[in-house]
Amino acid sequence: MFGTFRYILAVCVVITHVYPMKFQIGIFAVIGFFMISGYVMGHLVSRYRSAGQIQYFYIDRLLRILPQYLLYLLLTQVSLFFIKFWFFSGYFSPDFSLPAFVLNILLIPVNYFFWLPEIEKYLLIPQAWSLGLEEQFYLIFPLIFVSPWFRRISVILSMIVFAIGATEVLAPEIWTYRLLPGVFFIFILGTSLSSYQRNRDKESLSTMSFIYIFTAILFLCMFDRASMEFGHNREILLAILTLFPVLIVLSLMPRRKWDDFIGKASYGIFLNHVLVYNYLQHYELFMQSYERHLVAGTIISTVVAYLSYYLVEIVAEKYRHRIRRNVFSES
To answer: Do 248 and 193 form a contact (C-beta atoms < 8 A)?
Structure first.
């Protein structure tokens, strides 16, 4: 039942970008995406490793992330010839730069936009920084997956980085939200749930408990204090505490075709909504009220997402499923 959940999280990201609020529900939603990603990666890496074909895991992930991303990257670049001012980004410059465009294609550099001037002024899909972060998790997780001891150390170090960032010793938004060292333990929360459901092992249960208790203690220590306002502490901590139980419940529910169908639009919405709303604002469409603007934009974004899924994503999905059938059938 993850499809509807992912769609709701994607719409939450849209809401934050269209109408920023004191409580940024989009950040809350991104943390949910990290946990879902960790959960799914736990299943995939386990199966690819059991088959002795871990290299196909990386191909699987590239086929999942890149097709729609590259499509919307190209559409955004083409759109710049018609729209000279880009909304929703204080960094963006419409002047074409081949090196920066290549960095956008590589995706991982986008996660470091605040340290790369060439990317900072040419961020085509601003929200793609989180995809660059996820790609880094995909790269290192199969390596960490091999050693339980190394995984434990990595989780503890990540929690330490997060705690230091949450108290503003390090830049809080960067080290508790933007970069992998500070959010790695959030991904592992999802992978531990996946591992526990497969193996009923004590290690996964203890890891989940340890991370959840750590989050609860940190939240209680910061409650009603100024530190809750640092970076996005409130949204991140509340997301872990509330969305992880939701993830547990949904993971126990059977898959439904209608739920899978709804979920097909989630990735496209995440990628295309900034482009869609730029067109709406540029041509002043549905601007009479915030509610009409939000609803109209979300509907259009959803329709465009389904189009990109059935035109592009579905082809890559067939290859992914073919790879899985061939690899898993041999194991």
So the answer is: yes
The one-letter amino acid code at 326 reads N
Could you give the CA distance from residue 31 to residue 26 in angstroms, rounded to a whole number? 9
Q: SS3 for 60?
A: helix
Return all residues near 309 (Cβ < 8 A) that are at least 6 apart: 68, 264, 265, 267, 268
> 284: which DSSP letter?
T
Count the domains in the chain.
Answer: 1
Per-residue pLDDT of 112-130, as tens digits, reads 988 987 787 788 898 999 9
Going through 21-95 in order, the beta strands assigned E by DSSP cover none
Contacts of 300 (CB under 8 A, 6+ apart): 276, 280
CA dist., res. 5 & res. 36, Å (int): 10
pTM reported for the whole predicted model? 0.95
Overall residue count recorded for the chain in this entry: 331
Which residue range forms the structural domain that includes residue 130?
Answer: 2-330
Nearest of 4, 73, 109 to residue 312 by alpha carbon: 73
Q: 41-51, pLDDT tens digit by residue? A: 999 999 999 99
**136 burial level (CB within 10 Å; 0-12, 13-18, 19+):** middle
Is 135:108 a contact under the CB 8 Å cutoff?
yes
Count, in order, helices (H) and strands (E) of the chain.
15, 0
Please say whether the beta carbons of 278 and 86 come within 8 A.
yes
